[in-house]
């Protein structure tokens, strides 16, 4: 089996961190070509630093990491320190990163990497879509060279940052509209799916039992990150949003999905960033997204536990 070539665009962030661990645990299945960072959960100065800290912890100080856009296209930056903490990785303390930040801008890395490719690279987006949107505007040819986007974002029922919108698309709805109308194959992993993947105490116990720096970091992050969601939703633990994207790339059979036309609200402040999914094709608009509907949560956590154990091997 040839490893799937991927680029990860993220805003670490606790769940982004777990997604990076999951992606880096199976190099025989996922060949991570680079990691681009964007302002989102915390400002860009922290998301780029956090990505480097996490890659060093995972033993991948060789990976090229890029800083991208420091604010959304049009709206002021909204961050989520109340969820992820002031550092973006509250709950753990990592040493200052020694690995370099690449000097190339993330947008130019995306353009160069995808336009030079044979169209075989998948882009996993775990944060606001600003970097990808700017790349599409700057070099439209990129649209013909992205094999697929697998995006954590959107909400069909309840939102999180507002009653109707999910954080990533709320932060930069104009970027989301550029991406959703670009004609690039796209799989959408919304809150309606990620809220099926709760890191319950039993599931965290299995990870904690691995008893390694990586497992301690995973549990430490989730113990802190879970408080907000547990208080807000009454969940028995945090939902693992971003790792669901990586799990989809590793084990797509854990998921069910359907093709539909998806649009995003960019004008009404009441529903800004809301994704509207035409499940029954009433608009006659051609589908532009593969909308994930369900996840096999037990299988997902078995995969995640295996990944943390693999990264813990000497
Ligand atoms: O709404 C959840 C998403 O927003 C996740 O990607 C989380 O990391 C934040 O970026
Ligand atoms: Ca994220």
What do these coordinates show?
The protein is of the alpha/beta class and 314 residues long. It contains 12 helices and 9 strands. It has helices at 14-24, 44-57, 81-84, 106-115, 130-138, 167-171, 173-180, 191-194, 201-208, 213-233, 241-250, 297-311, and strands at residues 4-10, 30-37, 65-67, 121-125, 146-152, 186-189, 255-264, 275-278, 289-295. β4 (121-125), α5 (130-138) and β5 (146-152) form a beta-alpha-beta unit. The radius of gyration is 18 Å and the shape is globular. It binds alpha-D-ribofuranose and calcium ion. The site of alpha-D-ribofuranose has 15 residues, from α1, α6 and α11.
In short:
The protein has a single domain, classed as Ribonucleoside hydrolase-like (Inosine-uridine Nucleoside N-ribohydrolase, Chain A), CATH 3.90.245.10. The chain contains twelve helices and nine strands.
CATH top-level class: Alpha Beta
Largest sheet: 9 strands, mixed
Low-confidence stretches: none
Which structural class do the helices and strands define?
Answer: alpha/beta
Cα-based radius of gyration, to the nearest Å: 18 Å
By CATH, the architecture is named Alpha-Beta Complex
What kind of oligomer do you see? single chain
> What name goes with the CATH superfamily?
Ribonucleoside hydrolase-like
Which kinds of small molecule does this entry bind, naming each only once? Answer: alpha-D-ribofuranose, calcium ion
* Percentage of residues in helical conformation: 25-40%
Per the CATH scheme, the topology name is Inosine-uridine Nucleoside N-ribohydrolase, Chain A
